[in-house]
């Protein structure tokens, strides 16, 4: 029975050593995994900071581009408004000149009619049409 007893003791001792090595191995694995997790968390925070910084920089770049485009558009709008104003001023000037010339044209025609009527009355010449016979 001692053999059986020693065999049991041997198995228990062997089992406790095997358990101890397994526990040590598991502890090492746990420590290694904790180290890996800590490293990954550090890298993850670095990546988050890096991307948020780069993302902020890109957003600032986009804002600057939008400001430049808006300034350019505003400059174009001001240019087109000034050209439109110059054209309108020129059109108004030409319109005034045409109206002025139109007034003189009608005044001249009126004057020519009056002068013609006066000359006709003064000269009292018969019209060449009255004495014209067609047949």
Strand content: under 5%
* SSE sequence, one letter per element: H
- Biggest beta-sheet profile: none
What would the average pLDDT be, to the nearest integer?
Answer: 84
How many beta strands in the DSSP annotation?
0
Question: What best-fitting shape do the alpha-carbon axes yield?
Answer: rod-shaped
Helical coverage, percent range = over 70%
Secondary structure topology:
Layout: H1 2-123
Give a description of the structure.
- With 135 residues, the protein is mainly alpha-helical.
- It is 90% helix and 0% strand.
- It has one helix and no strands.
- The radius of gyration is 56 Å and the shape is rod-shaped.
- The mean pLDDT is 84.
Concise overview:
The protein starts with a helix and ends in a 12-residue tail after the last helix. With 135 residues, it is an all-alpha fold. Helix content is 90%, strand content 0%.
